[in-house]
Write a structure and sequence with these properties.
The complex is a heterodimer of chains A (327) and B (333). Chain A has 327 residues and is an all-alpha fold. Chain A is 74% helix and 1% strand. Chain A has one domain (40-290): Orthogonal Bundle (ABC transporter involved in vitamin B12 uptake, BtuC), CATH 1.10.3470. The longest helix of chain A has 27 residues, at 207-233. Chain B has 333 residues and is an alpha/beta fold. Chain B has two domains: 2-134 and 270-316, 3-Layer(aba) Sandwich (Rossmann fold); 136-267, Rossmann fold. Chain B contains eleven helices and 14 strands. In chain B, α2 (42-58) packs across α10, α3 runs parallel beside α4 and α8 (223-235) runs parallel beside α9. Chain B is elongated and about 60 Å long. The N and C termini of chain B lie far apart (55 Å). The chains are: A mainly alpha (327), B alpha/beta (333). Chains A and B meet through α3, α6, α11 and α13 of A and β7, α7, α8 and α9 of B.
Chain lengths: 327, 333
């Protein structure tokens, strides 16, 4: 049993992150200065938020490829609302962004739940539809920094106890969802629905409805991230966060979330995000060619998948030892 | 197996027949397709505006403004294949990759479609001529000069580019490195890549400022990169210390110039570029001019361009924007 705890993904990843930081520090000591680490964390905050949502979706044996497009569409919507009504207070903007993102998530959820279309097809479709909608909404034009109101741009940068609010939102989301996943009926239902859908159905859990809620939560988090992203980089356009959905899935996989569903923790998803965040922040500092950066990120994903596959093998109890050996 | 070959042959023949039909119908109206790197980019929207202007001037021209939704060569190949199927008369493309789109464009030329490239070029086999917005050496010199103009005492500068494989950015950077000896005291310390993604470019700018505390200027010859750098410099509280310059659009850069993060930047006029590309495509497609080294092609109000040995031509010099003229241009493009 102690061996299991030591070998758990969270411990392994923490070790890997520490090792990574040590290697970087040996070449570039300033990287592990607290202010820089805080910067890296803040930079990774959007990835953490999206990875939490994605983790919940993956737990239920689904996948949400539309997160980055949702982020970009919600970002464009709130950007245009801000341009049209500069006086609207930021809390209202945040509520709108969460609500609009959740609405987009509901579209995915309903298609998966009621029409039973494979989630990869649904979200591939909505991903393209969302991007197209941004183009139609904005007419292909960018919303630029001078068009935003100052309070709109200031919110994620405002410092509270030494960390920008964006970091605090990520921390709050990690705590909230750790609680939701371990202490609420819905949270446990996500694990049950993905771990063994048939058993979950017999236990009275509506698997489709659980998947619907997973997509809604993922959408809401993507929407919130949409506002944070647009306000942080002070720009909104069609290609915003292009291809980011793959980083999000990668963060989950590295964080020990099983693509086959049922296994994963919020903390793991956060560590997976941090791992990718550190790599993308550190590699340019160490002055490695951009081609190697891609190869290194890819290598990390493959190693994580190998570890995941092995972790999944000894899942459950082996009832017939002889049969297991025979195969 | 045999039957399948026969079916596809029949399908191919009927397609060819329908193509011939369309090109016959299109004779009264010359259809020129303006293929851009991706839809939704301000620069290309402005180029399309210029193309429409040229079309209105020429009269019998229909402009088809099209491109993929993201900047990939695969997406452009699909668009080119669709245009071949539609039987357009000319394709004017700004390519995402000089080689990847070439076979598709060669196929277009075999079908009698006039193919030119503009802005970001295609290799010589894949087009009849290439229109550079400006000459590469001139742009390379301009981006360094923009930084040097505001650094009387010299110092360190760094370049933040798009992707490491971007055709035009790499050519400009190479040209900039060539003219560095003309600017004594200016030291180019690093070239980093932001892949035209806001988050990656922002991070790259942060890294530059952290790695080189004495950095005086960040030169970003790409619109996403220059905006992200400008935001990173503002957030780091280094306005006045680090000058962000390079190539950007006035409408997008207005905030940066206003905040002081950017003292000046340059861009050619994309409206002129789309206009000239359309004029050239029309001249070649209608047979009024031929694409061969040394030939001179009229470009309406822009005068004319002369092709060099590689059938390329330069339109004009890049134009510098600063606090004095930004308000005049920010509403145009």
């Amino acid at each position: 049993m102690p061996k299991n705890i030591l070998m758990s993904r969270e411990v392994l990843l923490t070790g890997a992150i520490a090792l990574l930081l040590a290697i970087i520090a040996s070449r570039f000591p300033a990287f592990i200065a607290p202010t820089n680490l805080a910067n890296v964390f803040n930079d990774t905050a959007p990835l953490i938020l999206l990875a939490i949502g994605q983790m919940i979706v993956i737990l239920t044996r689904c996948i949400d490829l539309s997160v980055a497009a949702n982020l970009a569409l919600t970002g464009m919507v709130v950007a245009m609302i801000n341009v049209a009504m500069p006086g609207l207070p930021v809390p209202v903007i945040i509520v709108i962004s969460i609500g609009f993102g959740a609405l987009l998530g509901v579209i995915n959820g309903v298609l998966v739940w009621k029409l039973a279309i494979p989630p990869i097809v649904v979200t591939l479709g909505t991903m393209t539809i969302f991007r197209g909608t941004i183009f139609l909404l904005s007419d292909g034009k960018w919303v630029n920094s001078h068009e935003f109101s100052d309070s709109f741009k200031a919110f994620p940068r405002t410092e509270f106890l030494g960390l920008p609010l964006m970091s605090w939102i990520a921390i709050a989301a990690v705590l909230l969802f750790t609680l939701v996943m371990s202490r609420t009926t819905l949270g446990r239902a996500f694990y049950a629905a993905g771990g063994n859908p048939h058993a979950a159905t017999y236990a009275g859990i509506d698997v489709g409805k659980t998947q619907f809620w997973a997509f809604t939560i993922s959408g809401a988090l993507a929407g919130l991230t949409g506002y944070l992203w647009v306000s942080r980089f002070a720009v909104a356009f069609v290609d915003l966060a292009g291809g980011f959905e793959l980083n999000v899935v990668a963060a989950c996989v590295i964080g020990g979330v099983a693509i086959m569903g049922g296994i994963g923790t919020v903390f793991g998803a956060m560590l997976g995000s941090l791992f990718l965040g550190i790599i993308s922040n550190a590699l340019p500092v160490v002055n490695i060619s951009p081609f190697w950066q891609l190869a290194i990120s890819g290598g990390a994903i493959i190693i994580a998948v190998i570890l995941n596959a092995q972790a999944n093998r000894d899942k459950g109890r082996i009832i017939l030892k002889r049969a297991e050996q025979a195969t | 197996m045999k039957r399948r070959t026969f079916t596809s042959l029949v399908a191919g023949m009927s397609l060819a027949a329908s193509l011939m039909g369309t090109s016959a119908m299109a004779q009264d109206n010359l259809r020129i397709a303006l293929v851009v790197k991706a839809l939704g980019i301000g620069f290309f929207e402005a180029a399309a505006e210029g193309a429409e202007e040229a079309a209105a001037e020429l009269g019998n021209v229909e402009v088809i403004y099209t491109g993929p939704t993201d900047t990939t060569a695969e997406g452009q190949i699909e668009v080119i294949n669709a245009l071949i199927a539609q039987g357009v008369d000319a394709i004017a493309i700004s390519a995402n990759d000089p080689d990847a789109v070439s076979p598709a464009l060669q196929r277009a030329m075999q079908r009698g479609i006039t193919v030119i490239s503009w802005d970001s070029g295609v290799n010589e086999e894949g087009r009849q001529m290439h229109l550079n917005p400006s000459s590469t050496p001139l742009i390379g010199n301009t981006i360094i000069k923009l930084a040097a103009d505001h650094m009387p005492d010299g110092g360190q500068v760094a370049i933040l580019s798009a992707s490491a494989t971007a055709t035009n950015q790499n050519a400009w950077i190479a040209a900039a490195e060539e003219v560095m000896p003309n600017y004594p005291g200016i030291e180019l310390v690093a070239t980093v890549y932001g892949d035209d993604l806001s988050d990656k470019s922002y991070r790259a700018a942060q890294v530059l400022m952290a790695s080189y505390p004495d950095l005086k200027a960040i030169i970003a010859p790409t619109t996403v990169g220059i905006l992200a750098s400008c935001q990173a410099v503002s957030d780091a509280g280094k306005i006045g210390q680090v000058n962000v310059t390079g190539l950007g659009l006035p409408s997008e850069m207005a905030g940066c110039v206003e905040s002081g993060a950017t003292k000046s930047f340059a861009i050619w006029n994309p409206i002129d570029l789309g206009y000239s590309a359309t004029m050239i495509a029309h001249a070649l497609a209608s047979g009024a001019a031929t694409a061969e080294p040394g030939s001179e092609i009229p470009t309406g109000r822009m005068g004319s361009v002369t092709l060099d040995d590689t059938n390329s031509a330069a339109m004009s010099d890049p134009f510098t924007y600063d606090a004095s003229n930004i308000d005049q241009f920010k509403d145009i493009f």
